[in-house]
Amino acid sequence: MDLGASGNDSCVTTFVILGLTETPAVRPILFAIFLLAYVATIGGNFSILAAILIEPKLHTPMYFFLGNLSVLDVGCITVTVPVMLKHFLSNDRHILYGACLSQLFFFHLLAGTDCFLLTVMAYDRYLAICHPLTYSTHMSWRIQKASVCLSCLFSFSNALTQTVALSTLKFCGPNIINHFYCDLPQLFQLSCSSIQLNEQLLFVAAAFMGVVPLVLITVSYGHVAAAVLRIRSAEGRKKAFSTCSSHLTVVGIFYGTGVFSYMRLGSVEASDKDKGIGILNTVISPMLNPLIYSLRNPDVQGALRKVLRGR
Fold first, then answer.
1. What's the half-sphere exposure (Cβ side, CA atoms, 13 Å) at 106?
2. Is 69:285 a contact under the CB 8 Å cutoff?
3. pLDDT digits (tens, 9 = 90+) for 205-259
4. Which among 190, 202, 265, 222 is positioned nearest to 123, based on CA atoms?
5. I want to staple 10 with a disulfide (CB 3.0 to 4.6 A). Which of 3, 15, 255, 309 is the partner?
6. How far is CA 130 from CA 173, 227, 251, 267, 268, in A?
């Protein structure tokens, strides 16, 4: 355990991240698996981004938001997985206090922007299906840019608040994080000072960035479902639902894992389970998103073929 000054004012200067396993024989296998997952995620999301940029058919608000979501997915997995890969290859699992706070900040910045962006995408589908005649007015280029900028601003405010609040806590030891990256629930367990304010801030953030967006998404898709059911043509209903199914799948994965991660504060026994949930949230979800959005979308598939052929 690395501590700063001696005495009552001693404080932790580094943390030890246990990671996914302490068995040396398993680490090379996990390294290969997560390296492949990381490369696949980077390649898949940048392919989606390239397809959106080169295909004129995809120059629409929905794909503009999808392109931003791909960038966020790349950032989210880059914040967590490279550190994990490094620890698989080395017995040194220490991470500096400042580096831990930086990882926490950027993870919450990217994940928070994801929350708001998924809400904006639901609103976009609501406008496209329920108000098609005024869609171009209500979702103009200026509104698209403003929506993304506000999503980043709100998320930045929350990430900064959580990080600054965490930096006021004292860590006198132990300094072992039973996870593969630095996050609030695990760090709260290690604090030797009161975390009441931090838990209250996290509760407010969960309401503002979790509950409110989820309610807005639900309301948006409630209106969409009602509008689609009024379409007489079965082909028309199928086409309308197909434009929303991908987004709903991503929302389900994102919010499902988020709820399990942050609604069980203070449960030490849940730490090992949280690693699996963390993998779903930080690795599996960003890796699957390109597949989910391209699987039933012929326009994206056609653009991806152009990208892969180098045209």
1. 16
2. no
3. 988 888 899 999 999 999 998 888 887 777 777 777 777 888 888 888 888 777 6
4. 222
5. 3
6. 56, 6, 20, 44, 46
